[in-house]
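Input chain follows. Return structure tokens only.
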Amino acid sequence: AVADIYVTTYKADEVQEAVVIQAPKDQTAILGSAVTFECVAFGIPDPTVRWTNGSSDMDSSFFTNKYTERGVESKLVITNVKSYYQGEYRCKADNGKSSIQTKPVYMELINPPSIKLIDSVFYGVPGKELVIAVVVEYQNAVVASMTKWYRNGEPIVAEPGKIVFSNDGTAVTIVNVESASAGTYSFTIETEAGSASTSTKLEIISAYIAPTVTIPQFFTDVVAYKGSVYFLKCTVDGKPAPKVLWRKKEKSTDCDSALIPLL
């Protein structure tokens, strides 16, 4: 078998150091999407271009190098983005005369938003106005593409004077609560990065009753020994059920019970 081997030689004054004439740029991506980084390097002889992710070399199956008059045009393509692809990337060029690498660029994943409930149960009084709302938190600069509210699985439709949505869609106002307003209210938000949903309940009560706090007569100032456990107790009433907050000097402690231990 005979094989031809071609050798290109350059005079000393023709050799040029490798340079990057087009550096890659930061990219954002959604899980499962495709991302492309581009880099153009020039030199005489033509440089060999490779890519790194963090401190590791990328496999050559991830990138292609095209030799053109302007230099070596290299494209790093990740066709199915996974969470572990997030991080730092560099383009490296070496032509024997010199070696150069670009400043790091980054791939950042765009994550779906998260939703926080203001209350797990809302309470409405017939004839009164009620606002049911959630708080949407974005991990990235993602604009909501669509928000929806449902009651018992059925879409809620805006009705002037009856049902009003906030501008961002995260709150629905029932202008005049009725017995039929009770049920499970679900909220869904869809963005380019994915969707999130949550639900809460609306219960109907006859009237709001202001909270009252009663301290048992047998409770007085407490003398507690270090290392012992002593309980403070109070009775809390109201509709809807009030949230209990204990305060020690300037510090507050959330507690879901009217009984709190002193440790």
